């Protein structure tokens, strides 16, 4: 049968024209979900989990309670959110089909509501425990209404007891001295680096910058302001490195200064935070950022068997190994499709590295089964998004790390590749020869991202880090000369009335 004829037949079938002639033709493989057995859960069903974009999950299940493993259709579930006492609700809702039988529902609120009723509907029928009632006040992201008790906030957020990376980073300090640091750190790093000195006092944020290139402080300001709107932070004083490279190279036997950085390395002792990229994507989810940990889950390309078994990479020339990777790809095009979208750091030699290729949408990466994660200037900040997809990540061994690498396990969440890429071809071949195992690792990596790298986890990490760090302070944090107040953005359009009592300082 010719392809054209086949597609005509498929079209007719989908129009239902052959339904009488071919009663069994409608594939039975996609079972239909049952309203009673479908599962709904997640932080977005709880009033006290305030996030820039709230979210919850829907797992479709059939009438016998079996989970569906393929999509029953993008429009299967309808979600409505209403605040009964309000005339209008300004809430933007998206139902994201994860194509594995589950859905991610996210919503961004532009005002605070007394009570919210969440309706999750399947053909106009309520699903599972729907409607879900959030007893208010249900605060929106912009509402400056901190929970006075940090431990209560952590309990509401279901934060983990501890983060191994925080424990490790702070273990080298028996104490930190804000008075001494305020003198010494600017002397050591203030001239050549891009540094911010922050003080949080009475839950207000103050800052002084050092160096010329301090534009990236907007990310740090934003997360601090967002946190102080949600929970009362301890008084503290700390330095943030806005540059790519971690700074503190001293050995544990020397005097080490605490510097907060977005990337850590085996040779430095900086305290790592979630990267500015991941932080911004959390704060701007359903805002001006289009790639975030939720949108990526709805754009993971074809299912595993339909993915192209060539390993894929796109990026710019920010490291020697990236040049090696592209050369390797040109020598083995059937194994690796790696190409540069930009040349910036090295001289572009087209005979060695080929022409620049057009930028590829990140979501299109997932047309490929194997994703190569290779360092750039420092760690490649795309790893959270790569893990959240349903491809297998081949991760280069690296001296650089982000805040969550400590909890990732080679062969469980990703396939490790030597730092010099010497075994990359071999590892791709392994994955091709062990398809079931490769798929299992891909899904474990995805599960890791779903469990550890969503917005609630990022807020928990920052809070825990600040809390643990603050406990180490041996002198009182102060608002230093030259510091300015970082103001909350004014939200005149949607002011919030905070019902929480403002407690006096617990001294
Ligand atoms: C169905 O999916 C939910 C959510 O992922 C999971 O917790 C549950 O164990 C699954 N049930 C079965 C029977 O596999
Ligand atoms: C898989 O991807 C490679 C590299 O992008 C391409 O050359 C090849 O044609 C693709 N294979 C299929 C079956 O689409
Ligand atoms: C960095 O340290 C980690 C953890 O100890 C180790 O697994 C890794 O091989 C090191 N990588 C490099 C390139 O130094």
TrEMBL record:
GO BP terms in the entry: nervous system development
Record GO cellular component, one term: endomembrane system
Biological pathway: Protein modification; protein glycosylation
Keywords, A to Z, come to: Endoplasmic reticulum, Glycoprotein, Glycosyltransferase, Signal, Transferase
What the entry lists under Pfam families is as follows: Filamin, Glyco_transf_90
Q: Identify the residues that the record assigns to the Glycosyl transferase CAP10 domain, covering every copy.
A: 232-476
| Annotated SUPFAM superfamilies | E set domains
Q: Does the keyword Glycosyltransferase apply?
A: yes
Which first-to-last residue range defines the signal peptide? 1-27
Q: Does the keyword ATP-binding apply?
A: no
Task: Report the protein name in the record.
Answer: Glycosyl transferase CAP10 domain-containing protein
From which source organism is this entry?
Zoarces viviparus (Viviparous eelpout)
């Amino acid at each position: 049968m010719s392809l054209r004829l086949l597609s005509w037949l498929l079209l007719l079938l989908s129009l239902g024209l052959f339904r009488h002639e071919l009663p069994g033709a409608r594939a039975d493989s996609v079972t239909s979900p049952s309203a009673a057995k479908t599962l709904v859960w997640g932080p977005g069903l709880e009033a006290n989990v305030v996030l820039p974009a709230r979210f919850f999950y829907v797992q479709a299940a059939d009438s016998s309670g079996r989970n569906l493993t393929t999509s029953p259709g993008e429009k299967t579930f309808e979600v409505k959110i209403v605040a009964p006492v309000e005339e209008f609700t300004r809430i933007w809702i998206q139902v994201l089909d994860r194509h594995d039988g589950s859905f991610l529902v996210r919503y961004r609120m532009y005002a605070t509501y007394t009570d919210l009723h969440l309706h999750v509907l399947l053909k106009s029928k309520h699903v599972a425990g729907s409607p879900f009632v959030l007893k208010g006040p249900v605060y929106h992201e912009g509402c400056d209404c901190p929970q006075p008790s940090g431990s209560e906030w952590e309990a509401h957020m279901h934060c983990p007891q501890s983060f191994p990376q925080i424990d490790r980073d702070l273990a080298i300090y028996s104490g930190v001295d804000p008075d001494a640091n305020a003198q010494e750190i600017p002397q050591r790093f203030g001239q050549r680096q891009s540094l911010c000195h922050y003080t949080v006092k009475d839950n207000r944020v103050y800052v002084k910058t050092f160096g010329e290139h301090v534009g990236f402080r907007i990310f740090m300001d934003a997360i601090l302001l967002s946190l102080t709107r949600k929970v009362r932070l301890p008084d503290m004083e700390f330095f943030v490195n806005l540059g790519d490279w971690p700074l503190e190279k001293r050995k544990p036997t020397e005097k080490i200064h605490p510097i907060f950085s977005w990337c850590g390395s085996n040779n430095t002792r900086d305290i790592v935070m979630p990267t500015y990229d991941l932080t911004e994507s959390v704060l701007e989810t359903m805002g001006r950022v289009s790639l975030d940990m939720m949108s990526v889950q709805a754009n993971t390309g074809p299912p595993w068997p339909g993915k192209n078994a060539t390993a894929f990479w796109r990026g710019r020339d920010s490291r020697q190994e990236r040049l090696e990777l592209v050369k390797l790809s040109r020598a083995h095009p059937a194994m690796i499709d790696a190409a540069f979208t930009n040349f910036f750091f090295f001289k572009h030699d087209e005979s060695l590295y080929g022409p620049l290729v057009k930028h590829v949408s990140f979501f299109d990466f997932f047309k490929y089964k194997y994703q190569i994660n290779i360092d750039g200037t420092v760690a490649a900040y795309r790893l959270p998004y790569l893990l959240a997809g349903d491809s297998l990540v081949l991760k280069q061994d690296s001296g650089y790390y982000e805040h969550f690498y400590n909890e990732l396990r080679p062969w469980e969440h990703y396939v490790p590749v030597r730092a010099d890429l010497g075994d990359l071809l071999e590892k791709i071949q392994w994955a091709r020869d062990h398809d079931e195992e490769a798929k299992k690792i891909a899904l474990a990596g995805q599960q890791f991202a779903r469990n550890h790298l969503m917005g609630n986890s990022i807020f928990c990490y920052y809070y825990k880090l600040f809390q643990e760090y603050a406990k180490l302070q041996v002198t009182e944090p102060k608002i230093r000369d030259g510091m300015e107040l970082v103001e909350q953005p004014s939200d005149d359009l949607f002011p919030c009335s905070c019902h929480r009592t403002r407690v006096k300082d617990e001294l």
